[in-house]
Amino acid sequence: MSMKFPIERFRKAATPLYYYDMELLQQTLDKIKGSVSRYGFNVHYAMKANANPAILRRISEAGFGADTVSGGEIAAAINAGFKAEDIVFAGVGKTDGEILLGLREGIGCFNVESAQELEIIEQLALEERKVARVALRINPNIDAHTHHYITTGLEENKFGLDISVVPQMIQKCMQSKALSFVGLHFHIGSQITTLEPYRMLCERINAIQNDLEQQGMTSIKSINVGGGLGVDYDDPDKHPIADFDPYFALFHNHLKLRDGQQLHFELGRAVVAQCGSLITRVIYVKEGIGKRFAIVDAGMTDLIRPALYQAHHKIENLTGAGRELRQYDVVGPICESSDVFGHDEMLPEVHRGDLIALRSAGAYGEVMASRYNLRSLPGCIAE
């Protein structure tokens, strides 16, 4: 399946811009729904991946919940039509104002990451005369073998609670008039491309549940295993939709849920990455000493992943069909040496004005754009 781009629309539009293939997004949502329906699992969309209003509306219409990490994301989720009771709120640094927003909107769950956070949520809930539903995020100390910036499940990471403090925190919830303990939350990282870390997570959760039950704690209504399923950045046309079937089947086969226990997922990248591309226009072709540069009007301000994570997105010359292949470094205009999208890229000969697509940019692209160098934010076409 090769993505079809509305090139004539791009020619008339100002660049850089994000293009979202809404048909591919819908196919991805349908695939996820079909996969989880076999098991009765629940999926929350991780909004940090992409908060474009058109994307959010389509995902909310599909009946997914929302995984949020800020008050702004809670507000955007509600504005996009997500049900408050299907919104979960995670993050190590929730402010009082954000907690109050979640309480007043009646969100489904706060994923708690420290003992002091639990105390503040209880205090604010008492003041508001509300009951806060909370899950405790446990750090399982599992290495997901991904980039060190996006691993979250090791003891050295800032996320989650050590298992040793969890029993007393559960007891605190059960004794409080303002807290309702609903379950346990886990998340081990992002862009995970093998299933082995998830199998290890299942074994770890099974052991934790057994241990807690031996301590008399049996009222765990839900298990939330986070997300992190990776996508194919090298060949998005070969794998336009992530392989969801074995992913969900693994949890069905290896995680020992108790009777009536619900399983929740928080998928972001795997939902939206492949439906998005950053479209940019060639400004100049520069002949260097031993290098040829295609200088484009998009920069790290529009797509920061290559500069921040040393990530690579497939690069295509949309308007170079039939030309001889030549080698280029594809670079942006930002006054930073890290503003590079690709080294030694083989592309159909590049001319000034050509349209270039940076593929698989639907996740952690537009949502991370900035105005560094006082540049304008990228535009958007979603169809």
Keywords:
383 residues, TIM Barrel, single chain, 16 strands, Lyase, Ornithine Decarboxylase, Chain A, domain 1, 11 helices, alpha/beta, 8-stranded parallel barrel, 30% helix, 8-stranded mixed sheet, elongated
* Overall shape: elongated
Low-confidence stretches: 146-154
Could you tell me the CATH topology label of the largest domain.
TIM Barrel
CATH architecture of the largest domain: Alpha-Beta Barrel
- Integer average pLDDT: 94
Number of DSSP helical runs: 11
Please write the string of helix (H) and strand (E) elements: HEHEHEHEHEHEHEHEHEHEEHEEEEE
Report the end-to-end length measured between terminal Cα atoms. Answer: 17 Å
Oligomeric state of shown chains = single chain
Write the CATH homologous superfamily of the largest domain: Alanine racemase
Main sheet?
8 strands, mixed
Helix content: 25-40%
The total number of structural domains is: 2
Structure classification: alpha/beta
Total strand count, please?
A: 16
Structure write-up:
It comes from Paramuribaculum intestinale. One of its GO terms (biological process) is lysine biosynthetic process via diaminopimelate. Pathway: Amino-acid biosynthesis; L-lysine biosynthesis via DAP pathway; L-lysine from DL-2,6-diaminopimelate: step 1/1. It catalyses: meso-2,6-diaminopimelate + H(+) = L-lysine + CO2. Its cofactor is pyridoxal 5'-phosphate. Helix content is 30%, strand content 22%. By secondary structure, the chain is of the alpha/beta class. The chain folds into two domains: 252 residues, Alpha-Beta Barrel (TIM Barrel), CATH 3.20.20; 109 residues, Lyase, Ornithine Decarboxylase, Chain A, domain 1 (Beta Barrel). Strands 1, 10, 11, 12, 13, 14, 15 and 16 form an eight-stranded mixed sheet that branches. The protein has an eight-stranded parallel β-barrel with strand order 2-3-4-5-6-7-8-9, surrounded by four helices. Helix 5 crosses helix 6 and helix 8 packs parallel to helix 9. It is elongated.
